[in-house]
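writing this on my phone so excuse typos. first protein, seq and then structure
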Amino acid sequence: MMELYEAQRAMRNMRKVAMQRGVVAILDVGSSKIACLVLRFDGTERLVEVEGIGSMAGQSGFRVIGAATTRSRGVRFGEISAMQETERAIRTVVQAAQKMAKIRVDHVIACFSGAEPRSYGLTGRIGIEGREVHEQDVARVLASCDVPDYGEDRDVLHAQPVNFALDHRTGLSDPRGQMGQELATDMHMLTVDAIAVQNLAYCVKRCDLELAGIASSSYVSGLSALVEDEQELGAACVDLGGGTTGVSIFMKKHMIYADAVRMGGDHVTSDISMGLQVPTAIAERIKTFYGGVYATGMDDREMIELESDTGDWEHDRRRVSRAELIGIMRPRVEEILEEVRSLLDAAGFEYLPSQKIVLTGGGSQIPGLDGLASKILGQQVRLGRPLRVHGLPQAATGPGFASAVGMCLFATHPQDEWWDFELPVERYPVRSIKRAVRWFKENW
């Protein structure tokens, strides 16, 4: 636990250094593409930490001055499976983004999906004896949380205080300076497979870059695709990537749950490739141009020319109807959405006051997906594009860039995490708790 805590602190310090230098790179390491954005901060005088706990601590203005993407290599289910190939892809994309930005970058902040995320809701409480709450008290109450025994082979990726209560007043975002007898907190902790994190860190290091932060794609996609009201009142973000589909739930502007389905757009492509017996590249193109999940009478008549180059003329000159293509795509898309539904049920999503669902990610662009999703998930569903960010090239404004844009927000408006406070080191009680977000009902 301590090494991890130290590692996270070291990354936080590295990010401060990068921001003082005025430039940092964002790396979104996905299963189908790797994206890199280079951010420049406007003037260091703006980087004075804003006092306060929560989503807008340490605000700063920034703009994107370089952007590049490359086809992902060596990444499966959001995790690195072939180190050299991923390293080559990261080098390629970082060099291209640096070239556009006309500046060299040393520090990167990376996000990734997959790695079997698990969410825990923790609570802690301490006595204050009627005096004012100080920084140390916040540290003490965070340290008093019962940390579950989450396993040797796992790392804590995020540990964020999502609520403070002082005596009978709950829903406080920052208790400092207020008086009371007892301070309590609710914390959301996300753990992931440690090997996946180590591989990513090692890969970044091999590219001669310093890792200045790491985040879960599900979390950062929610930051950029959910509007402020949705983050406040309660909503889920479903990020349909290539290899995985990330799910995150937000409430009171904090992420309170995250998980992932080990399926995404690539699985739809491989179904098309097998069903129509065409190479993957052609299947991907057919999916993009003709794909969908609802067939009408028209689609029986709309024919798609299949090209492949087996040398067998009969086999190469084939046509299929769009209805056949939809018949191949729909079952897989339904399967992904059914899995998402069972994750939301497990998280107790139905207890939230508002239950909006926002679909984003490259896979969310399949025509008719929102209709099918609202049928299966039974909620109000909308398609979400990432927020507009200064300097972002037009090509990078689509839903496939939700996590990359979310990383910009994560880098520049960090939410407070456990390791941002000088925690008293002596106690780390390890007690098991139920893996769920049951404290919704009691606290909000």
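second protein below, same order as before
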Amino acid sequence: MTFGLDAAAFSRSSEKGAVRVRPLVGQDRAQWNELWKGYLAFYETTLPQAQYDLTFQRYLDPAEPMFAYLAEHKGTPRGLVHIILHRSGWMEGPTCYLQDLFVQPTERGTGMGRALIEHVYDVVKAAGGKRVYWLTHETNTTARNLYKRLAEEPGFVEYTKAL
């Protein structure tokens, strides 16, 4: 379900310096699990194994408007990004929510986070999408320093309610 976008664009890989960003594939399960676990630990949360299974399955399902990419350095996955496409009442074309971004601590400051974000920009634009946006915690200062160089901070405050 890609809302009339060029679905082939989401299967692209890219090279940004020493970083290769590529789509997630079924054989990546073990590496993805470790990166996903690292991301969740950063935000001091855990999920049941059933949610890991469901999430990984969704990223591989062509009917889902969700995509995942891994960033590799020297052939080893060391970062990930997850995106979700959706419609917007504010624009004609689809928009992209960059839901999760994680780079192993040893790789931070190497350009890997930038490579992941720019890859998302590239594939969403090539597919015909109109906007990419994301959230981060206010205390995530290292990431926020990067984000301020790559995007605008519109000043909105998030509210949530678990149901």
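The chain has one domain: 7-150. thats all i got for now
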